[in-house]
Amino acid sequence: MSSGYKPDILWSPHHADRYVICDTELSLYRIGPAGSPETKAGALPLSEQTAATLLAINSDTPYMKCVAWYPKHEPECLLAVGQANGRVVLTSLGQSHNSKCKELVGKEFVPKHARQCNTLAWNPVDSNWLAAGLDKHRADFSVLIWDISSKFSPEAVPAEKVRLSGDVDSGLVVTKPLYELGQNDACLSLCWLPRDHQKLLLAGMHRNLAIFDLRNTSQKTFVNTKAIQGVTVDPHFQDRVASFFEGQVAIWDLRKFEKPVFTLTEQPKPLTKVAWCPTRMGLLATLTRDSNIIRLYDMQHTPMPFGDEVEPTIIERSVQPCSESIISSFAWHPSAQNRMVVVSPNRVMNDFTVFERISLAWSSTTALMWACGRHLYECTEDAGQGAAAAEKDIATKMRERAQSHYGHDTVQVWRNHVLAGGDDPQLRSLWYTLHFMKQYTENVEQKQQSNKQSLIYSGIKNIVKSSSGTTETRRCWSGSDRQTDVPRYHSEERSLALQLCGWISRGPDIDVEPFLKSLEQEGEWERAAAVALFNLDIRRAIQILNKGASAEKGDLNLNVVAMALSGYTDEKNSLWREMCSSLRLQLKKPYLCIMFAFLTSEPGTYDAVLYESRVAVRDRVAFACMFLNDAQLPRYIDKLTYEMKEAGNLEGILLTGLTKDGVDLMESYVDRTGDVQTASFCMLKGSPGEVLKDPRVQCWIENYRNLLDAWRFWHKRAEFDIHRSKLDPSSKPLPQVFVSCNFCGKSISYSCSAIPHQGRGFSQYGVSGSPTKSKVTSCPGCRKPLPRCALCLMNMGTPVSSCPGTGKADEKADLTRDKKLAQFNNWFTWCHNCRHGGHAGHMLSWFRDHSECPVSACTCKCMQLDTTGNLVPSDSV
Amino acid sequence: MDLHILDHRLRVTSISKTGLEQYTHPLIKLIFLRNRTRCKFFSLTETPENYTVVLDEEGFKELQPSEHLQVEGSTWLPLNVVSNGNASSSSQSVGVTKIAKSVIAPLAEQHVSVFMLSTYQTDFILVREKDLSVVVESLVEEFNIFREEGGESVPVHSQDACNGLQRNGREVPHATVHPVLIPENQFCVMSLDPDTLPAIATILIDVLFYSNSPREGASIDQDMECIKFFSFSMIDGYVSLVMDTEAQKQFPTDLLFTSSSGELWRMVRIGGQPLGFDECGIVAQISQPLADSDISAYYISTFSFDHALVSTRKEVSFMIHSKSKRQD
Fold first, then answer.
1. Which residue in B118, B121, B153, B248 has the most chain A C-beta atoms within 10 A of its own C-beta, making it the best mutation to test that interface?
2. Residue contact B261–A84, C-beta within 8 A
3. Which of A496, A532, A658, A772 is the most exposed place for a label (fewest CB within 10 A)?
4. Going by DSSP bridges, is the β-strand pair A108-109/A173-174 parallel, antiparallel, or unpaired?
């Protein structure tokens, strides 16, 4: 018969390193680190780190059905064993015979009628009490509560009985239980309720779960259910109980005991063990028969049942502690987090720790937080100077840029790239492009050529398409009379394109010299030299290079390049040409490279220049506008536009303008970088109405606003909204909230439509500074007085005097601030809960010191109801 | 009090002593190989006349019809009374006594024939399926009635209003007084952990199937001082055994469960001729006076006769006395 028993496992309640395996006998093990001197040769490895040593075996109690470990420290290794005939025997393991529990060991508790003992439970507080659940008998109770300290059986033991049980020492036999419960029914499982441990016992009877109150044993609370096996109370939430039946686990709330709060998904095989994790909230482990996995149900986030409708969320996982073997039983470690030992039917044991789920959350800034077990990790971006700005997360960049008013410089548009940090060539190109576009738009507007306006914003791609009347010139190298064979093309559109590229300034002047000067100032020697060279001024180019070489921190190699340049000859087969065309490829600097490429190219075939991707797009486009003919130019521009769109390169905005093409380009830029900030500002910047209506653009703008809100950059958000409504009047929100008169119900801001909208959710009224709108303390519709301010008791509409409660000194210090706030101080404010309110200024100062409503009889905690009122904006005004 | 109509559909059969060998295979399967059959309700009682086998339809499939197998024609349903805890204060008596007034008497009044089966764990009152509506009507006042279906207890309410006494159309015979037989041997009611059944398998087989071997069988006819009576039942996983002290000696003492007082019972066999299944009121006749005097008793019906178990000779004589009083 013993072969049928599967081993079960019990952790010592107080020794974190001891546990007992029970099958036909009880075996006490000590767990320790593997390989330590303590663990002897006979130690069984439980995991890579731990091993178990067998300390003691007890085979005194045959026919074991259930075992329970005495919950108190002393006596330390006392076990109650429930036997197949219903007797409960106290026994011990690995204790010396003079130990404290000597008088208890061997004590037997015998029910009147023999039947199987199904379950045992020690009272957690009154540890003399041991509850035993038995099978049913026609005339007997199924729940017996024994007092282990009772000394003798009060009734004389009849001789017959002694014969049946074979007892020798009847002094150790107790037959009179303290309490008897549950007549004519079987008890399959029971547990004491920690909430009212002295008095309450939950038992899985044959057909119901019943709560017995030992103060009045004839009363019981019960519920009919099939789930009556293995009742167990959540140690962390004492009203939550799990019980199971076959493959189904029901979770109960003892406060609503009529039906299970929920049931877990049914398993195909019958469950054998269900246990709450003692070290972790709401983690329930279940084991089914003949299975090698333990299922875990994480009820961590289960909201406590507020109503029937609340369907809790349960995260279900399964773990496989030992790869192949079937698990016979498992036991959570009483103190080590998420640790358990599992045992297989052939007594192979395994020490196992359930790895905690990792949950992580991004903050609205770039910080990342993750939690595992009881540890919380925060991960923030390295703010050290070592981290290159380019490495920073786009969110950090956007935050910094928002704080530096990026995008808000509407006069010197190019400065925005400086506000953005000035280190991103694409942003630089973008803002210069927008700057030039704006400049020329204004220019054109001055000339009243409104039809050209769209052309400029449509970008160079469209400009060159409309190109007509191109003239071709062959110029001399300046400073030399040698005729070049390089044709250069001119047209109105081409020079417009050059202007947009920034090579020439506005007006009829096509001199490139100012541009060269500015490049020289910025130390872009190679670029300046290249531009000079493309303008066929080889001497100027050499001069620039020399200058660059002699400048502070200048590159002396530039002199060498200048020398090489000076040897230019247009002789087709000269050595110079041959060497330059091959050696130029070794030049690291792209502008130097394209200079020689230009000089060694055949006219009309400038691919080495045009497709040198390290050269700025605007320079390549300007070059193309000068040297490509009407057939080549649009082809090249189209190709380049396509490339830019694919790459999401903002330099391409020069080509696409703020058109649908531009939105496409920006889309791939946003896809690549996530920079909705630049996208929003750029698209607002001057883009025609139809582009702004593009859902993608609206999406970027809304996302950027949400981002600012999430960062608590409310002022920045407001600034952005103002900026936006200036550029896109259609985005201006209509007033949505009006203050209506208590008497006539009409809006009291009769002039609301006349005055500009002041903000979201508030209507401004009665501004003191304005003489035209002098004090109006009555409704303009019905002339009834307006409500009074709860603090100054004046009718609303009366301007605010000094704030009560703040000292004079304070006021002076805050004078400018007060002035700013003066308008707002007169606004209506009120609590949405108690409907009391008054002047905004008064309310603000009141709630600085109070949380309760200023109206004396009102106990409304207005301030605490305001969830956002306590948040401080992260950006200062 | 709750009355549960259990989810078993039972047949009452009898196997003749001579035909036993034909049925040993299915019986051994039903007793020892629980996981090979889906039978949940099985009871085998050996009396000198025959073997009475009560079992559910799953188990009934195992029994091949033959001339040796008698089957009562109807389907029987077991009723079980569940006291919900508050009975603890009342009498300490057990068995049919407890339900004599509340169940047996009202059923007898309505002329419902019952088949009683007491076990170590509880008492089952078997009624014919066709009588169920009468049963529900007559007991609905006293009990909360539940019908168990697939493990769930469904409350049952009396649907049709009752219309007098003659509902089952059976004529009302006057209570006959049956002769009784009181054998000398004493009996014990025991139980067993089903897991330990294999350990006593050979003893059980010996007692059940080889009891007619000459060493005891010779004495059966010559006197009825001691009668052969052995009952084994396994109902919903619970084992119950009723045997006389002679048979008990053959079993190891540590495996069988009994009450700590080790009480022994005397038997009263009711009926001189086979009682049949249609007569009603027999159980009531016996149990009523017992209940009046608060005497514990078990009651086991078999195919031919009824058997009541009471604890002492004094109570036996009390029973006889009260019976004869009725006769007068």
1. B121
2. no
3. A772
4. parallel
